[in-house]
Amino acid sequence: MESGAPGQDLIDQAALSQWLDEEGIEVGAPVAIRRITSGHSNEVFELRRGGLRLALRRPPRSYNAASAHDMRREFRVLRALWEHAESVPVPEPIALCRDLEVLGVPFFLMEFVDGAVIRQHVIPGALEREPLAARQMSEAMVDTLVAIHDFDWQKAGLADLGRPEGFLERQARRWQAQLDRYRTRPLPVLDEVGEWLAREIPPAHEPTLIHWDYRLDNVVFAKELPVRVISVLDWEVATIGDPLIDLGWMLGCWRDPHENWRIHEAVLGQFPDHANFLSREAVAERYAEYSGRDIQHLPYFIVMGLFKLACLLEGFYTKFLKGQSDDATFGSQMESFVPELGERARRFMQ
Questions:
Q1: What are phi and psi of 273, to 5 degrees?
Q2: What's the pLDDT at 55?
Q3: Mean pLDDT score across all residues of the chain
Q4: Distance between CA atoms of 274 and 133, rounded to whole angstroms?
C-alpha cells in the first residue's frame, strides 16, 4: 500500500507479510494491498502476492468483536457454506488470523470474487445491455435466499451459532435496548414502532440459517450473461433464527420501480433506476412459491428490519454528536434519516 493512502494505518504490511509467510502463502513474495471498501462496517482490502489475488477482511477502526464485526464467526460460516452448500455461492475462506499482534484485530483472507456488485444507479457491463437483466437479478436473489434457508445448518456443524427459541422476542428487546442506550433526543415514531414490534410478535417459522444483512449490494453477480449470483458476501451477523427476517430485511431495503426514497443513496447503496426490477410484492410472492413458507406476517419482518436499521443508524448519529464519527457528513445526515426510517416502518404497520 502506498504511503499516505487511505486506510494505510489499518494494515501493517511488514507484520502481514510475516504472517503470510508463516501460513505458507506465497512465501517471500512482495505484497500489494489496495483498499476496496471502507466506512461504517467491516473493511475489505485486495491483497496480491505472487500469483494470488485474495480479499482481506478486517473490522473498522472502532469495532465490537462480539457482534457486527466478529471475524471468527464470519469465517466459520463461510467455511461451513463452502464445504457443505453447493447451491449457496460464497468466497472460499483461506485463512483466519486470531493473533492481535499482526494487525491489532482478528482478520481473515478469502477468495477474491471478481463480479458485479450493484451499488450505482445503473447496472454495469453486459448486464446493462440485457433488457431482462434487472428482472433476472431479482429472481436470482430470491432463489439464492431460498437456498440459504434450505441449507442444513445442523449437519454443517452450526447448531450452536444461534438460539432459535424465542428469537423474535429477543430481537424486539435487543434493538429497543440498543436505541435506549444511544438515545440523545426524542424519537416518538421509533418508540411507537418498538412498542408495536413487542406487542405483535407472530408465530415463529422453523429456524434456518439467516444472513441478517441480505440485500442487493451484498450479492455478487457474474459480469457476463446469463444472469446468475456468483457469491453472497458479509456473513458476520449470520445466525440461526426465523427465515422471514432475511426476506423482511431485503424488502425493507428494496425499492419498488419509480419509488423515491432518498435514504437509498446515503445508506443502502444507490438502487438502480430500472423499471424491470421485480416489485416488492412480486419478490415476496416468488419467495413464498419457491420456499413453501407462509408469508402472512411478512409486514412484521419488514418493520423489524427497518427498526433495526434505524437503531443502528441512531448509533452513528450519537457518535457524530460526540465527535467520534469517522464520517461527519454521514453522521449528520442521520438527524433526519433515522426518523424517516421510523416513518417508513410505520407505513408497513398499517
A1: -80, 85
A2: 97
A3: 89
A4: 10
Q: Helix H segments across 8-132? A: 13-22, 71-84, 100-103, 125-129
Each domain of the chain, given as residue ranges in start order, spans 8-111, 116-348
- Triad 244, 249, 254: Cα angle to 5°: 120
Residue owning grid cell 460464497: 90
Q: How many CB atoms lie within 10 A of CB 180?
A: 11
User: d(Cα 18, Cα 27) in Å, to the nearest integer?
Assistant: 9
**130 secondary structure, DSSP code:** -
The string of pLDDT tens digits covering residues 319-341 is 888 887 666 677 778 888 899 99
Q: How far is CA 85 from CA 24, 147, 179, 323, in A?
A: 27, 9, 36, 44
What pLDDT sits at residue 268?
A: 60
With cell 465490537, the residue in question is 64
Whole-model pTM? Answer: 0.92
- C-alpha–C-alpha distance, residues 306 and 313, integer Å: 10
3-state class (DSSP) for residue 232 = strand
Share of the chain above pLDDT 90, in %: 68
Interval 222-234 mean pLDDT: 94
Number of H helices, E strands in the chain: 12, 10
User: What residue type is 200 in one-letter code?
Assistant: E
CATH number of the domain at 116-348, out of 3.40.50.970, 3.40.50.300, 2.10.60.10, 3.90.1200.10?
3.90.1200.10
Cα 148 from Cα 233, distance rounded (Å): 12
CATH code for the domain defined by 8-111:
3.30.200.20
DSSP string, 46-60: EEEETTEEEEEEE--
Q: Is the pLDDT of residue 207 over 80?
A: yes
Is 116-348 in the same CATH topology as 8-111? no
